Amino acid sequence: MHISVIGSGYVGTTIAACFAELGHTVTTIDIDEEVVAALSAGRAPIDEPGLEGLLETHAGDRLEATTSYDAVPESDVTFLAIGTPSNDDGSIDLAALEAAAEATGETLADKAKRHLVVIKSTVTPTSIETALEPAVKRGTGGNENVEVGMNPEFLREGSAVSDFMHPDKLVYGTNSEWATERLHAIYEPLLTDHDAHVVETDPATASMIKYANNAFLASKISLVNDLGNICKEFGLDAYEVMEAVGLDDRISERFLRSGVGWGGSCFPKDVNAIIAAAREEGYDPALLEATVEINEKQPERLLELLGDHVDFDGSQIAVLGLSFKPQTDDIRNSRAIPVIEQLREHGAEVVAYDPVAIDPMRERFPAVEYANSAAEALDGADGATVVTGWDEFAALDEEFDAMETPVVVDGRRIVRRRDGIVYDGLTY
Ligand code: NAD
Questions:
Q1: For residue 7, how far is its CA from the centre of ligand 1 (angstroms)?
Q2: In angstroms, rounded to a whole number, what is the distance separating the alpha carbons of residues 173 and 180?
Q3: Would strands 25-29 and 383-386 be described as parallel, antiparallel, or unpaired?
Q4: In degrees rounded to 5, what are phi and psi of residue 77?
Q5: Which residue from 141, 222, 374, 384 could staple onto 318, CB 3.0 to 4.6 Å apart?
Q6: What is the Cα–Cα distance from 229 to 155, expressed in whole angstroms?
């Protein structure tokens, strides 16, 4: 099948490369010329394991990248993977997606064959009916051959390619059997040697499934962090407690390790968006509000622990890990941001290190000093804190000896305790 993908960010690039890998012909379209140039040359515009290999294989062959929407009518199905950022009140800003939906529609005004426009972006349950379908229709001038569906994406940054190729579930939110069949045909090659649940539903329910999924996971982490904080107050090992809790198969063993909280482009935006959407409908989602509040307090707790050992004013603090989680260079809503902000507010000089996310963090905090290695960040520091659980931090050992005062407060429980360092952490 010929698929066009509008938006070549984390999701768009991943799905375009994976659709090509599944055997489809793919045209991926973005307004950012640098992104398009990178994709055309078979280079990944983002750091994501496995992506570069797929792009090298398929770019210029089954995968084309362009800034022009001209290829849309030649394709059979169009996926819209445009960002849906937060407004100040937490609701989602649909402006860019709506503009892309209308521009897509315009290219399909005269299409005589049926064409499916699939929303891949995460949008609230009413968005398709009230904003996105009307935008496509405005563009097409009411061409009845064009239909809109919803196919939420569950991939995680850091393992996006693998998640896409081995999904737990596929959710098809459509208004017709024809549209469901189109989606089946697209994903069929992926299901031949991999079992995944396929959920067939309507677009609004498909949208809500994505929000419920992320709200559940974010709430699970915040609950685990809340319980971890209680364990810490009692001097108990939260990991030991939660490992036992995870033996209950109603709970599952995943996402039970407490730490400095969740970030990224999805959990914060999606939880806030569904809170805002629920309020708009007159419902006050108290548990989800607490989920956000607990998450905002975790970096403060981390710094309170560090502050028990180090007077921040005039001190040098090493911040290890800047991306919101390992295996990605994405710093959106990374817990490192409030940690750096608060350290600097308290007069500390921050020396930060991350294996891949220094450049984006430098844009956010140009005045912070960035080290080339964890060892360099630790050298001469009065204290250190670990914000992202990169594997390489588990191997740190005598690097701590170069600290002025070897105090380590671990937000991810990854540093090995050893003689000669004062170790503290959120969980024990
Ligand atoms: P992103 O910001 O990384 O990428 C969006 C891309 O769209 C950018 O490259 C931008 O240049 C391009 N763009 C903007 N306007 C355009 C237009 N009119 N025409 C063509 N291109 C345009 O966003 P993302 O992280 O890929 O997220 C996309 C959507 O997928 C969001 O709704 C997000 O919530 C959802 N989602 C993201 C993830 C994730 O892990 N990042 C996972 C699941 C779902």
A1: 6
A2: 8
A3: unpaired
A4: -140, 140
A5: 384
A6: 29
| Both tokens assigned to 25 | 């012909």
How many H helices and E strands in the chain? 15, 14
Task: Report the C-alpha gap between 76 and 413 in whole angstroms.
Answer: 48
What strand order describes the sheet that includes 77-80? Answer: 63-66, 25-29, 2-6, 77-80, 115-119, 146-150, 169-173, 197-201
Q: Name the pLDDT band for 270 (thresholds 50, 70, 90).
A: very high
The model's pLDDT over 53-63, given as tens digits with 9 standing for 90+, comes to: 999 999 999 99
What confidence category does residue 46 fall into, taking pLDDT thresholds of 50, 70 and 90?
Answer: confident
Closest-CA residue, ligand 1 atom 13, reads 7
> Under a CB-based contact definition with an 8 Å cutoff, are residues 3 and 64 in contact?
no
Residue 231 known to be catalytic? no
Average model confidence (pLDDT) across the chain: 96
Q: What are phi and psi of 199, to 5 degrees?
A: -110, 120
Q: Cβ < 6 Å from ligand 1: which residues?
A: 6-12, 29-32, 35, 81-84, 96, 99-100, 120-122, 153, 155, 157, 265-266
**First-last CA distance in the chain:** 53
Distance CA 239, CA 251 (A): 15
CB 29 within 8 A of CB 8: yes
